[in-house]
């Protein structure tokens, strides 16, 4: 189990991925974004997650460059993720989309590139493109996002390379036990987006009672719950105090009993689209 912010899990290809990172979903280009990334790096974060559709890769790249310089670390110390959007899920278009993301970020490579959504009839061509990028050494690891078990099974029927990561909506109201078990069985690292359910869980009475027991915030308890379940997580924040707080989860451990109480909050409730029924 992770003991510090720099601790990593090893993906099935041997690449090391930090357990905790910063997400930038819906953070617009501008100083706030640049400062959030820079601040996270300053406080020890070594993983940054963005996507083409967030339209903020340029600001993320600026934050990375400034953060690296100020923290006195190298690019190799960071794990940077982006994602190919639905409109670019052809073979050639996915490769071009990767190059465009690199250009906007101002980076020579990504540590992880994901297919953002399992668009039926399109994700296999995009996966072949990601396999090419990986085999050519242009990206360190490849994976998917929002894939359910049947999507993964379908993809792996024809894939040369198994996905290394599956990033999905994951929080105490959506525990996805079957998907988590499937990914573990197949050596695919599960990663949580919207781990705090876009803030909707922060006033939950059961979680507040557990948080009080450990002298932690509800957010810290949820993020710790993620890690103890073996799930990589990327909470989003632009506020320095919250960025620090989100990372202060390595000095306590939730008991098995309390882990089960949190697990039992599941309602299969999504705040984001259903991967089997989305339209964008």
From TrEMBL:
Taxonomically, which superkingdom? Bacteria
Instruction: Give residue ranges for domain NADP-dependent oxidoreductase.
Output: 31-266
Q: Which organism is it from?
A: Paenibacillus haidiansis
Its recorded name reads Aldo/keto reductase
Q: Which InterPro entries match?
A: AKR, AKR5G, Aldo/ket_reductase_CS, NAD(P)_OxRdtase_dom_sf, NADP_OxRdtase_dom
């Amino acid at each position: 189990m992770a003991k510090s912010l720099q601790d990593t899990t090893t993906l099935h290809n041997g690449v090391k991925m930090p357990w905790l990172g910063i997400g930038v979903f819906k953070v617009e280009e501008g100083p706030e974004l640049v400062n959030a990334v820079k601040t996270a790096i300053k406080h020890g974060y070594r993983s940054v997650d963005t996507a083409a559709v967030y339209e903020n890769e340029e600001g993320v790249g600026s934050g990375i460059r400034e953060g690296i310089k100020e923290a006195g670390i190298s690019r190799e110390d960071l794990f940077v993720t982006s994602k190919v959007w639905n409109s670019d899920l052809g073979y050639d278009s996915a490769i071009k989309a990767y190059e465009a993301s690199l250009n906007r970020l101002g980076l020579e490579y990504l540590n992880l590139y994901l297919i953002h959504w399992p668009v039926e009839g399109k994700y296999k061509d995009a996966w072949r493109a990601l396999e090419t990028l990986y085999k050519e050494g242009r990206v360190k690891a490849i994976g998917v996002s929002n894939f359910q078990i049947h999507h993964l099974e379908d993809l792996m029927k024809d894939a040369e390379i198994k996905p290394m990561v599956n990033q999905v909506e994951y929080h105490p109201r959506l525990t996805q036990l079957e998907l988590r078990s499937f990914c573990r069985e197949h050596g695919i690292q599960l990663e949580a987006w919207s781990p705090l359910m876009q803030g909707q869980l922060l006033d939950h009475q059961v979680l507040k009672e557990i948080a009080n027991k450990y002298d932690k915030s509800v957010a810290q308890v949820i993020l710790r719950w993620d890690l103890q379940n073996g799930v990589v997580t990327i909470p989003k924040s632009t506020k320095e105090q919250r960025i620090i707080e989100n990372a202060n989860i390595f000095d306590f451990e939730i008991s098995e009993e309390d882990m089960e109480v949190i697990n039992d909050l599941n309602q299969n409730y999504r705040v984001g689209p259903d991967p089997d029924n989305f339209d964008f």
